[in-house]
Automatic annotation (TrEMBL):
Domain Mandelate racemase/muconate lactonizing enzyme C-terminal: from-to ranges: 124-261
Protein name: Enolase
Annotated GO MF terms: lyase activity; magnesium ion binding
Keyword annotations from UniProtKB, A to Z: Lyase
One GO biological process term: amino acid catabolic process
Keyword flag Protein biosynthesis: no
Entries under InterPro entries matching the protein: DgoD-like, Enolase-like_C_sf, Enolase-like_N, Enolase_C-like, Mandel_Rmase/mucon_lact_enz_CS, Mandelate_racemase_C, Mandelate_racemase_N_dom
Coiled-coil zones: none
Name of a matching Pfam family: MR_MLE_C
SUPFAM superfamilies associated with the record: Enolase C-terminal domain-like (SSF51604), Enolase N-terminal domain-like (SSF54826)
Source species, domain of life: Bacteria
Length: 399
């Protein structure tokens, strides 16, 4: 079997990768909906793939892996890797988790970071109302994740929140979103945590997505202040999102200063960049994203390495889409006992639920998802239904 084409079309907001072979098999991968601009970067790899056997996943990845980078550009390499595994599973007639060593669990636990309504404000009562709504959703999630500080609007809406450079409220999260947090800002965040915990109690766990952008002394002070609330973790306080480095030394100082679990990893590309973070016990929880790390094989390696160092695993995935859900389910079915849950990616647009073939009517039940048993990653796109969402330049995507 040989690869004859690499295609990429932006459907809705997601760049969708389609690898075509001379035997009629094809594989699909999905780039997060936040990265529609990556289509040209995906297609940059076309000539490297043509003529290769797609079932030799590692051989193909050796040709392109070094051309990726930290978030966002590792997403192009990752989506191609997913499509290769999709073909490999179809060619073997088995779900991809079988090719990764087989399942450890029959169902996979997920947490809620994506099914949410727009916050009515940034006051403690707004945060309490939001988690109450999340708590009442039919998926019965065991845990919800909420953004605070530099990963929320409070940095813009709470007067005097921090002493850093302020900017006009914008959806573009950048390096200006950082600085020393004021006493007013600190107390406001703490009030929001208290309000959310009063609603959630011990029925639903709470994690906080915090940044990045914190200065280390503030991070230590806050992590200690919330110890009594038994949070699942504090995520990306020092680095994360689009920060193209890791800073394990600072994370280690933060981690050793508190009993609150510290989490990072969503933006990190390749296993090599997790090595020091894991081997120095710099965090308690890592959260690589299969759509950014370089693919599902990379994520599995990192999970195994973390397990050997007693570090927990909670993969990121909020923007990965419903095809990306297939990659998450397959790899997380194979992970060791340090696995907690992955971040469930809901449909970026409601009509995606009509396009994706292979998902049950109710995907999440009691915070668990069933394994996908169809060959490959287990999901497909209804080509006829999807054509209406194709741009004119991508008219031949499904041909």
């Amino acid at each position: 079997m040989k690869i004859t084409d690499l295609r990429c079309a932006v459907i809705g907001r997601h760049p969708i990768v389609r690898i075509v072979t001379d035997e009629g098999l094809y594989g699909l991968g999905e780039v997060e909906f936040t990265k529609s601009y990556l289509k040209p970067f995906v297609l940059h790899f076309r000539e490297a793939l043509i003529g290769e056997d797609p079932t030799d996943v590692e051989r193909v990845m050796l040709k392109i892996r070094q051309r990726g980078s930290f978030k966002p550009y590792g997403a192009a390499v990752s989506a191609i890797e997913h499509a290769l595994w999709d073909i490999a599973g179809k060619a073997a007639g088995v779900p991809v988790y079988k090719l990764l060593g087989g399942k450890v669990r029959d169902k996979v636990r997920v947490y809620n970071g994506s099914i949410r309504q727009k916050l009515t404000g940034d006051r403690p009562e707004d945060y309490a109302a939001d988690v109450k709504w999340m708590m009442e959703q039919p998926q019965n999630f065991f845990m919800v994740k909420q953004g605070i500080s530099f990963h929320s609007n409070m940095k813009d809406t709470i007067e005097g929140f921090h002493y850093g450079v302020t900017q006009k409220k914008a959806d573009y999260h950048g390096a200006m979103d950082q600085g020393v947090i004021s006493e007013r800002g600190f107390n406001h965040m703490l009030d929001c945590v208290i309000a959310m915990k009063e609603v959630l109690g011990d029925k639903v766990s709470l994690a906080l997505d915090c940044g990045p952008g914190w200065m280390l002394p503030d991070a230590i002070k806050f992590a200690r202040a919330v110890e009594k609330y038994n949070l699942m973790w504090l995520e990306d306080m020092l680095t994360g999102d689009y920060v193209p480095w890791v800073n394990p030394q600072a994370y280690r100082e933060l981690t050793t200063s508190t009993s609150t679990p510290i989490h990072t990893g969503e933006q990190i590309y390749l296993r090599h960049n997790f090595k020091e973070l894991i081997e120095t016990q710099a965090v308690r929880v890592i959260g690589p994203d299969p759509a950014d790390i370089g693919g599902i094989a990379e994520l599995k390696w990192v999970a195994e390495h973390a397990y050997m160092h007693s570090i927990l695993m909670a993969p990121h995935g909020v923007a990965n889409g419903l095809l990306g859900l297939g990659a998450l389910i397959n790899v997380c079915a194979t992970l060791p006992a340090n696995y907690i849950a992955f971040e469930y990616p809901s449909a970026s647009d409601p009509w995606w639920e009509d396009l994706v073939i292979g998902l049950p009517p109710q995907i999440v039940k009691d915070s668990m998802v069933d394994l996908l048993e169809a060959p490959g990653l287990g999901l497909d796109i209804d080509a006829e239904a999807a054509r209406r969402y194709l741009r004119e330049e991508d008219a031949g995507f499904f041909d």
